[in-house]
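Exercise 7b. Backbone tokens:
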């Protein structure tokens, strides 16, 4: 396929799936978001009394065996279970019938920033307490970060492009973006893409607490994630999965699919600055946003809404605001911007995928979800972050940002057809 042809290929989103603290499916998730409901509470997965941060956005009442074969549920890590269920939701939502598809032309790219953390910790305890012969033969398949994509592909019979992406908190934005590129290149007709994470575990919490990266507002969990607020004190970890079905416009139209919107732009850059801190001049993120807009052939002033990375950390929120101002100029003050992490917590490698779902829904529903807990304005964060309550407005174009440790940046541009 020549490059000119591949550049003309348009990519659309036809299916959505979500498992999150505020809803185990897209409808419940979206209803919670627009109502401004927080999924953050005290951690119940383990005894957190000795930890500086004792709160998280857990997926409560989760019974994997209710959604998948019980034997498969036992063999797979929680992060893989989330991805499997969200992918099934997305494929069902897309009304994609694999019996009518060429499996060679359907691919899966699902990422995880950390992978099977729960498996690692559980099996390490078994090794120490009971010896090496008691370690599960399923340990390695359960913990590796590409297994979610592998299991989803086996379920679907999808033999096209398949790999895992790992880029910390930019992981699933990169996964969706690389699926977009695979479709534009002509490597597939359909891609199932997104991310999954289940890192609310003792070791992960110990590490993040030692970095002093997480909120310690333990006495008021639902007010702890407060992006862009002057009194923010760190992120709140969430867990879950977001998956989307991407198709070429031609393929979607040929099968009569319901189309949510077009995925029009994607870009990936690196700060090359610091292992955890964003570039204080916002250079890498600014470049990612500009390149994503260029791919979509949109001017900055044509964007209606930005789903911000907005982690509720002192550095990220300030420098993301700066980057937005650099790219959008005066239009930055006319943009609606919100961080849905204020309600979902930060899903690390799955953050970008559920935020892609949010972006799609804003276009479909004409409602922008709020940034809750934004009570005291930070002078360095002085844009319109849609505080407190959702906003009805016409949304034709959305930019979604994500940043990861290591300096990785990714941006997606979505637009109504």
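Sequence design result:
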């Amino acid at each position: 396929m020549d490059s000119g042809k591949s550049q003309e290929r348009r990519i659309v989103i036809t299916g959505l799936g979500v498992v999150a603290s505020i809803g185990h499916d897209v409808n419940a998730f979206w209803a919670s978001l627009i109502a401004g409901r927080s999924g953050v509470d005290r951690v119940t997965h383990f005894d957190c009394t000795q930890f500086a941060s004792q709160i998280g956005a857990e997926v409560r009442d989760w019974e994997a065996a209710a959604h998948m074969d019980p034997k498969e549920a036992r063999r797979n890590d929680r992060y893989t279970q989330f991805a499997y269920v969200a992918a099934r939701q997305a494929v069902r939502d897309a009304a994609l019938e694999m019996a009518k598809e060429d499996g060679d032309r359907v691919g899966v790219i699902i990422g995880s920033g950390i992978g099977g953390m729960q498996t690692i910790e559980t099996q390490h305890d078994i090794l120490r307490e009971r010896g090496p012969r008691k370690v599960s033969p399923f340990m390695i398949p359960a913990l590796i970060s590409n297994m979610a994509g592998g299991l989803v592909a086996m379920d679907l019979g999808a033999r096209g492009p398949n790999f895992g992406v790992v880029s910390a908190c930019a992981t699933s934005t990169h996964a969706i973006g690389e699926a977009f590129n695979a479709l534009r290149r002509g490597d597939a007709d359909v891609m199932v893409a997104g991310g999954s994470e289940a890192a609310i575990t003792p070791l992960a919490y110990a590490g993040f607490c030692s970095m002093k990266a997480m909120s310690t507002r333990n006495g008021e969990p639902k007010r702890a994630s407060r992006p862009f607020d002057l009194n923010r004190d760190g992120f709140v970890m969430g867990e879950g999965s977001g998956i989307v079905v991407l198709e070429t416009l031609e393929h979607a139209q040929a099968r009569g699919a319901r189309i949510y919107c077009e995925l029009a732009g994607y870009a990936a850059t690196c700060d090359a600055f610091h292992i955890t801190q964003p570039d204080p001049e916002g250079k890498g993120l600014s470049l990612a946003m500009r390149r994503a807009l260029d791919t979509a052939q949109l001017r900055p002033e044509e964007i209606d809404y930005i789903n911000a990375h907005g982690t509720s950390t002192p550095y990220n929120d300030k420098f993301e605001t700066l980057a937005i101002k650099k790219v959008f100029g005066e239009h930055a003050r006319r943009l609606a911007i919100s961080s849905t992490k204020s309600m979902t917590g930060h899903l690390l490698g799955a953050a970008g995928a559920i935020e892609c779902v949010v972006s799609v829904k804003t276009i479909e529903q004409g409602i922008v979800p709020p940034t809750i807990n934004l009570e005291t304005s930070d002078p360095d964060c002085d844009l319109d972050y849609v505080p407190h309550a959702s906003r009805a407005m016409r949304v034709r174009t959305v930019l979604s940002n994500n940043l990861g440790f290591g300096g990785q940046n990714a941006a997606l541009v979505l637009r109504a057809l």
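Instructor comment: Residues 78-93 form the longest helix (16 residues). The first strand starts at residue 11 and ends at 19.
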